[in-house]
Design brief:
Blueprint: H1 4-14, H2 20-25, H3 40-46, H4 56-63, H5 67-81, E1 86-96, H6 125-137, E2 142-147, H7 156-171, E3 175-179, H8 185-193, E4 198-200, H9 219-231, E5 235-237, E6 240-242, H10 248-259, E7 267-272, H11 280-284, H12 292-305, E8 310-313, H13 322-330, E9 335-337, E10 341-342, E11 345-346, H14 350-359, E12 363-364, E13 369-370, E14 389-392, E15 395-399
């Protein structure tokens, strides 16, 4: 377990990256108390199980808590629900590159933009097996596969091949995850039968800002896919992208959407935009640098309002200093993407990440195993640590 003094000794190096607004809030007056005398963040820290009725006002209050206080409280919740020394290592492979009909303004794989990326056919199962073996040998325990499609309609042969990929990955003892665009009930059922662990479908940003980024798929369609996945018994992986030109209120907005789902996403990836030349956001957002404290605040807030979820640093992590990443771990992040590439963008390598985790006293999370408080065992919010096994998409998941 990494020690607080290690973070503190390097804190001065990170402070210049914080925004002026963040530094000002460190000396701001305490937030107003709730009706029983506790502040919203105090109630979040005291809770022994997740809740699903967060208001925007409450999330906004937590997000704007003085930064060091926010990190401390998020760290307390993280230690209450998770083993703080565990970090899930995930590797992402692009199994079908380019040619997507969507107009997501940040994406290199859209057929609408000239990014120099050529559309390719879906890869062979053997290529996935080889990549998954390499990932496992380097310590990754979840292997994710992404295809640049709007949806899976009319792709029966491709879905069959992907199901074979999922089974092969699971047979290696790795957790499996796919992101294939929109899926219906029958398609989720087929993936679950293959042993799929999780399905990724991000909400990207707030409902209000979403139309500024994407016009070819509605926010409701995204939520419908997520509900199809949840109802199909596959774990949901859903998060957002920071740096699209959105406001802090939009960070609050997408966290509000996720935290009020009937069941919180099993994992919440937090992506930092990597501006790609040729995309609408490639030129304009390259000139705007997202302050690091926005990432840190979002991660810490996610941990406080979705305490049992895995919070993952995803795309754009390679732009963050090691001390910045360590502060995110302190604030409750417990998963990272590692390997050769993040679909079409750069990714921190396995060796680099293993050295970093070792320096901070962290260890890889084992496949199909979590050290976590069970949020569903007791509806009276009494703390209960699950020691038996439970099923995750047909695969035994062990909780300690």
């Amino acid at each position: 377990m990494f020690q607080l003094k290690n973070v503190s000794s390097q804190l001065n190096k990170s402070i210049p990256a914080f925004s002026r607004r963040t530094l000002a809030t460190m000396s701001s007056p305490p937030k107003p108390a709730t009706s029983n005398g506790e502040s919203v963040i105090e109630k979040a820290v005291a809770a022994n199980a997740p809740r699903h009725n967060w208001t925007r006002e409450e999330i906004r209050e937590i997000y704007n808590t003085p930064l060091l206080q926010l990190i401390y409280n998020a760290s307390s919740v993280h230690r209450k629900f998770h083993d703080p020394s565990e970090v899930q290592l995930c590797t992402l492979m692009n199994i079908k590159t380019g040619g997507c009909s969507e107009d997501c303004k940040y994406c290199a794989q859209s057929s609408r933009y000239d990014t120099g990326l050529k559309a390719e056919k879906i890869v062979k199962v053997d290529e996935v097996i080889q990549a998954a073996r390499e990932a496992k040998a380097n310590g990754s325990t979840r292997f994710c596969m992404g295809a640049a499609w709007r949806d899976m309609k009319g792709r029966k042969s491709n879905l069959k091949r992907i199901s074979e990929m999922v089974k092969a990955v699971n047979d290696m003892g790795l957790e499996s995850c796919v992101t294939l665009g929109m899926v219906d009930d029958a398609q989720v059922k087929q993936l679950k039968e293959a042993g799929l662990t999780a399905y990724n479908h991000n909400v990207d940003t707030s409902r209000e800002f979403y139309p500024s980024v994407i016009s070819t798929r509605s926010y409701e369609e995204r939520l419908e896919t997520i509900e199809n996945v949840r109802q199909g018994g596959v774990s949901v992986c859903s998060g957002g992208i920071l740096g699209l030109g959105e406001s802090e209120e939009d960070h609050v907005g997408f966290l509000h959407t996720l935290s009020n789902m009937p069941q919180h996403p099993e994992s919440v990836p937090i992506n930092r935009l990597v501006p790609i030349k040729g995309t609408p956001l490639g030129e304009e957002q390259a000139k705007i640098k997202l302050p690091f404290d926005a990432v840190l605040r979002t991660a810490a807030t996610a941990r406080l309002i979705m305490p049992s979820s895995i919070i993952r640093l995803a795309a754009g992590r390679y732009t963050m200093k090691e001390t910045d990443q360590a502060m995110c771990f302190m604030a409750g992040v417990n998963a990272i993407f590692t390997g050769k590439k993040m679909l079409t963008t750069m990714c921190n390598g396995w060796d680099e990440d293993k050295e970093m985790l070792s320096r901070w006293g962290l260890k890889p999370m084992k496949s199909f195993e979590r050290t976590i408080v069970d949020p569903l065992k007791d509806q009276n919010e009494e703390e209960y640590v699950q020691t038996e096994t439970t099923s995750l998409a047909g695969r035994t998941m062990s909780f300690k």
